[in-house]
Amino acid sequence: MRFKLLALAAVCAGLGGVSTLPALAAGPLLGAVVSDGSSLSVRHEKLKLANGFEVILIEDHRLPLVAFNLWVHAGPRNEARGQTGFAHLFEHLMFAGTKHIPRGAADRIVDAAGGTDSNGSTNFDRTNYYFTLPANQLELGLWIKSDMLGYMIDEVDSVALANQQDVVRNERRQSVENRPYGVVEEAIYQALFPEGHPYRAVVIGSHADIQSIQLADVKAFARSYYRPNNATLVLAGDFKAADAKRLVQKYFGTLQAGEPVPPVVVAQPRLTAERRVQVTDHVELPRLNLAWHTPAIYQSGDADLDVVSHILGGGKASRLYKKLVYERQLAQSVQVSQDSASLGSVFGIEVLARPGKSLDEIEALIDAELTELTTRPPSAEELQRARTTIQTQLFARMEKMGTLADLVNHYNQMAGDPDFIGKDLARYQAVTPDTVRAAAARYLGRNARVVVQATPGPKVLAAEVATPPAPTAAAKGEREALNANEPWRKQQPKPGKAPALSLPAGKRFTLANGLTVVHVAKPGLPLISAALVLRAGQMNNPADQPGLAGFTAAMLQEGSKTRSAQQLADQLANLGASLQATAGREDTRIELSSLKANFGQGLTLLADVALNPAFSPAEVERQRSARLAALAQQRADAPTVASLVANRAVQGEGHPLAMPALGDEASIKATDSAALSRFWQSQYRPDQAALVVAGDITEAELRTLAEQLFGAWQRPAAAAAVQAAPPARSTQARVVLVDKPGAPQTALAVVSAGPLASHPEAASIKVMNAALGGLFTSRINTQLREVKGYTYGVYSAYAMGRSSGQFGIYGSVRTEVTGPALGDMFTEIAGLRAKPMGAAELSRVRNAQLLSLPGLFDTNRVVVSSYASDWALGLAQDHIVKLPGQYAAVTAASAFKAAQQQVKPAELIVVAVGDKAKVLPQLDALGRGPLETWDDEGKLIGP
């Protein structure tokens, strides 16, 4: 991916459903997804052009959007020996410009058109390029995608290659080398797969291999794999099939086919003896990983092992969570997965230990659970829980246009059938307790696994690979073409008639006890999301009890007066519902998502935990241990440390937002049931709460549920105390350094106080920030990443709260360019403050906010989150539906005023978490004193 951490095994496991589907009714569920009452199907049309290019059309008129999802059927499985990471590097190069679209212009065009979800990703078996555009930009999207596939190679030269090698190597530093347990995950695959196997080096590859790629290699890879006969485009959304067919033929039909791609035939390795590996890393908590080779995706046993993963580690109701986290309190977390891929899958168990706990003891308990599962079939209830969860996850993936398109492309390549959903359901229909036991017994033996124990210690990295000086200009003869010159492609297509911008309108009503209820009707798939939001966040913490709001929220899931923690977990699992409670800066949210058929029962559980928490002393002790471990764990992650220290630097000693949301060790140890109960009694009240619900539910149905479940919630006699925000007392230091010896990158947070959500020019501030650092195409990210190759990505953001605001620029850069990167950052800030944006830039960044709005409200969860935020921030009921008008009114003058008033260089505090010996001289050279050294908890060590 271009802006997110790259997963080591990104291929999702097959999704499926249950033997019966009581939540479904016969007939259409939404525009493209239909049911006959027992199975699902995606209404589609698949075409193959004369050159072999595949197109799958999914006409769906729910929203005025079209998702473009282009899969090139090449990944690490197609890499030559000594060229690990090549497929992923090529993904980056695909965004480096084409014959008809200059470098960087495609992303700017997508922004200006109101695109969302624009990115690329690489997994073992394919590379994916995707974005979603407003429906009137169908031709524009096809123009961009066809030029990327057919004419990228015309423009790739040594300059572009060198730049993207820098970017990808920065991504490796960030996602593997400077991330806790990154080297551990790599060690797992190196132990599982022999030298030369395409999965051994995971997706990201090695520094040496990435740097060794030559321009000739890039051209050869394009000739072999980036041809129309090795690619599939899925279009999903609001278009007419006849128009789409005509335009697909126009833009893709003349691309020249390549030679047939030979099949990749690699034998799946077999382990006949256990392999044990010890790894040390800069981490606080030990971690145990167990991994096995399992059947390839959609082969016999794959679905059974999916079910095994849910039974063993699918949330709080799973066997290993109950044993290791809840009962024995040996583990901080448990994750189990069946990561399915074409050349063979990997079944993995990952357990993060609590401080001081034995990995050997944890391993012994896992072995006992595996022995139990391989000798005795799981219960019918366990099997049904897994099926219900998988069904819910499938519906959630079909809710969003972009993920529906990706699911169909996945099925098309991996199963050979774009409408494999029904057959996928059949796989799970065939699973029985006996087949689950047999699959576990056959594949999860001790002699067929890799065991990796990771413990705190020095991080061992491969020898440093130098970054050579980047060429400043392409050499003569570097360009070549795969397709004929077609001058008409130089003209960017004009958009069709723009549909009126219409955002989901929420309707508010109030119960007699003061509880606000917000209803957003969103029929379609049988899914509903909800959130109970309370104005009781970090700002409400007593001065001597930082972290209390978060501790209280966490305890809600640990049992009520009517249900134990495990009873609650079991009941949620039976419903296939997710329930989580978290405290933010100024609010607490209890969030629920479930199938419509189970929503009433799920909301009953939400009401129970919110209104009847038990705060059992035994559960408090369990949560205390978990929070102390989490506190230690976050110290190992440099970007997290930078963000936490930045909060302290801006807000100052004694401010509620200066402390981590977890609190500190003293406050966690001092919190008891009485303190939690007092906070809950004073802060959890209906007149300071809102229930927000979006999905397939009517207002009448919601009114009935709200009255039944929340009507008796009593409002205290005393009026709610107004929580006044204490003034921020920012540090006088302008540079704060946190030492992280040996770090390959410096994590940066450049911060200051910021405006409130109620600021009358909030829209102008957000448009201005989009230009500065809020978009991938922003000035800062373009300069530091695309021009200089210093970073994998840098972004800026405003946290605009009800009573407190903050501005920050965040990212990680190579250690040796920390100073130059900061220098460039301040240069870009100065440039934005020096003169108003030109018309083209203003139009692009304003449209990126304005025209993208429909694409930002395309799932129940995001609609609920947005309306919950508006209520918590005290914004007007119609704030969301008025957003189009507010963004449209932003001018160059108002954005320029926002830059001058809301980004003040003299007030910005630089927080740098990196290797002091290498970074300090660079920070001194900036001349932004005073400079102080703090520890990873934000305490002053010295100047």
UniProtKB/TrEMBL annotation:
GO biological process terms, semicolon-separated: proteolysis
Signal sequence, start to end: 1-25
An annotated Gene Ontology molecular function: metal ion binding
Protein family membership: Belongs to the peptidase M16 family.
Name recorded for this polypeptide: Zinc protease
Organism: Roseateles toxinivorans
Residues of the Peptidase M16 N-terminal domain: 55-194, 520-651
Entry keywords, A to Z: Hydrolase, Protease, Signal
Tree of life domain: Bacteria
UniProt keyword annotation of Hydrolase present: yes
Pfam family, one: Peptidase_M16_C
Residue intervals of the Peptidase M16 C-terminal domain: 212-388, 675-848
Region Disordered, residue ranges: 468-499
